[in-house]
């Protein structure tokens, strides 16, 4: 794979209930913002995402009867909640599959923390697949997706090559709330550019932000209606490989979500000044005939969808906007997969 930093996994004495998985980040083209069941983490509405090539988390899990508690090390664990969410997920796996052993978890992401790329999406997808391998569960991809959803809703979409659709399902137990593949990376010729405008940690995480919007925004129901209305239209355009229709629908979805966020009490204002300037720049590029559209998540960075032929020009233009510190580039890529861990003493 060659993109994750090299690190070594110590050999355990006991039987090797250990596995490593790599999972990519993804960006929603049609957003998820709101839960039908908070405890089971079931979304209110479906969502559609693009899997991001090269922006990945690699996670090794080793279940070990000798451990008195879970040990979690790696990147993206700066907040106490990040670590406790992983332990809560391991508790869920233990309970569901009758496992008593604690686990050692080592997780590394190769994309910059604070770049506005969902490390929870790649992190929980990689953790789910590594647990499946370590415990020999042999889960179907739909079961992996539903399980990863319990860690983070967006993680359910990181198992698939190219493009995925999350189904909110209708069962009370959430067992039919999982994602499925919509098509391979070639389905839609697109490049995804991330204009990074601030590296500060976000003030309000997605889970808390969604709860606030659902509880206080007068536009929450309207947002859910907009998401339900936009989903089949975006899916059809995607299946037709029609970026000129996907782009505006993705932009609409992001703006409708941010309208609901802004109208929450107190308001959820994830944007910074440079966020607005990038949105304006992309509109200006469109006026010049370049196919480019924005999408924004629960943070200040702007992700720009653009035709590959125009990606150099658009990236250059974004980098010139005052307040943009760097521009990351990605394309639709492969979904989560098992890999062999590096073992101490082997290889470079
Ligand atoms: C704005 O998946 O991070 O990125 O399920 O509470 O962990 P939890 O939320 P999370 O929310 C993602 C929100 C979003 C839109 C999206 O990815 O669909």
| Radius of gyration, CA atoms, in whole angstroms | 20 Å
The overall pLDDT, averaged over residues, is: 92
The protein's oligomeric status is: single chain
Percent of residues in β-strands: 15-25%
Q: Helical segment tally?
A: 8
- What is the molecular shape? globular
Low-confidence stretches: 1-13, 344-348
Q: Portion of residues in helices?
A: 25-40%
The small molecules bound here are: ligand DP6
Q: What's the N-to-C terminus distance?
A: 14 Å
Instruction: Give me the strand/helix succession.
Output: EEEEEHEHHEEEHHHHEEHEE
The main β sheet shows up as:
7 strands, mixed
> Which structural class matches the secondary elements?
alpha+beta
Number of strands: 13
Could you walk me through the main structural features you see in this protein, from its secondary elements to its overall organization?
It is a single chain. By secondary structure, the protein is α+β, with helices and mostly antiparallel strands. It has helices spanning about 80-95, 120-135, 140-150, 205-215, 220-240, 245-260, 275-285, 310-320, and strands at about 15-30, 35, 40-45, 45-65, 70-75, 100-110, 165, 180-185, 190-195, 290-295, 300-305, 325-330, 335-340. Strands 1, 4, 5, 6, 7, 8 and 13 form a seven-stranded mixed sheet that branches. Strands 10-11-9-12 form a four-stranded antiparallel sheet. The structure holds ligand DP6. Ligand DP6 binds near residues 32, 41, 152, 153 and 297.
């Amino acid at each position: 794979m060659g993109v994750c930093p090299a690190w070594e996994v110590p050999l355990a004495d006991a039987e090797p209930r250990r596995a490593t998985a790599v999972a990519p980040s993804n960006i929603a083209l049609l957003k998820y913002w709101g839960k039908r069941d908070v405890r089971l983490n079931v979304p209110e509405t479906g969502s559609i995402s693009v899997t991001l090539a090269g922006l990945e988390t690699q996670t090794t899990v080793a279940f070990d009867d000798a451990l008195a508690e879970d040990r979690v090390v790696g990147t993206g664990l700066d907040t106490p909640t990040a670590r406790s969410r992983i332990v809560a997920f391991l508790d869920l796996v233990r309970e569901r599959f009758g496992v008593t052993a604690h686990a050692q978890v080592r997780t590394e992401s190769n994309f910059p923390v604070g770049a506005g790329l969902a490390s929870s999406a790649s992190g929980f997808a990689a953790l789910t697949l590594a647990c499946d391998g370590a415990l020999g569960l042999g889960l179907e991809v739909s079961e992996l997706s539903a399980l990863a959803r319990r860690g983070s809703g967006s993680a359910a979409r990181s198992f698939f090559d190219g493009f995925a659709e999350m189904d909110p399902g209708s069962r009370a137990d959430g067992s039919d709330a999982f994602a499925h593949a919509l098509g391979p990376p070639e389905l839609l010729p697109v490049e995804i550019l991330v204009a990074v405008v601030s590296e500060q940690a976000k003030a309000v995480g997605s889970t808390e932000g969604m709860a606030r919007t659902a509880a206080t925004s007068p536009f929450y129901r309207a947002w859910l209606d907009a998401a339900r209305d936009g989903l089949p239209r975006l899916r059809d355009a995607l299946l037709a490989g029609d970026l000129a229709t996907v782009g505006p629908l993705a932009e609409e979805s992001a703006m409708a979500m941010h309208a609901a966020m802004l109208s929450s009490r107190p308001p959820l204002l994830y944007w910074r000044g440079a966020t607005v300037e990038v949105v304006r720049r992309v509109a200006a590029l469109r006026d010049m005939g370049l196919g480019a559209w924005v999408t924004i998540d629960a943070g200040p960075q702007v992700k720009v969808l653009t035709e590959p032929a125009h990606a150099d020009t658009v990236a250059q233009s974004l980098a010139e906007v005052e307040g943009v510190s760097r521009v990351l580039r990605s394309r639709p890529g492969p979904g989560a997969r098992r890999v062999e861990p590096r073992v101490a003493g082997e290889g470079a």
